[in-house]
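seq as requested:
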Amino acid sequence: MVAIIDYNAGNLKSVEKAVNLLQEPCRITRDRNEILHADKVILPGVGAFGDAMSELKKYELDKVIREVAEKGTPFLGICLGLQLLFEGSDESSGVEGLHILDGKILRIPDKEGLKIPHIGWNSLSLMNEGRLFQNLNKNPYVYFVHSYYLKAADESIVKATTDYSVTIHASVEKGNVFACQFHPEKSSTVGLSILKNFISIQKGEL
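struct tokens:
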């Protein structure tokens, strides 16, 4: 069973729909035991960094997420769910992230001809043999909606980048923790393939 963490994020239902299309049992939940006993865990996210951290702490989900990461359950952060895994964000000065991974979330710099937020389809450049991207072509197109981007401290965990005013670390992987700045649930057949690759990962393979 895939647990989709419920902290009042905006894209819970679209993630649930995508997982259901893959015929994988899933449940939107904030129940600690359900999350800890799930085979896979997904942290979606649309919204502001500070508000999201406040919601996670209100339901003590920050502690649950750390437990999931420590016990080795395959875990996927999506969009804001990626950003929350890091140290902090320019969007919410002084708010500490989950800091499961090292890196900062920075505002996309202004550039003539580019609109912020970055909304739309961009191609990825794949690297470092990311398991989410198995059997995909080397420049798949995926859907983004964001104004802030990841700069990971350790570039060896970066599995995909994209360019939009700056080089964006678009997907990372370290041990059992995976994350995408883009929305696989809104990225058509490519996105479903990425989610299928995540769901197929077994705890013993990590």
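The radius of gyration is 15 Å.
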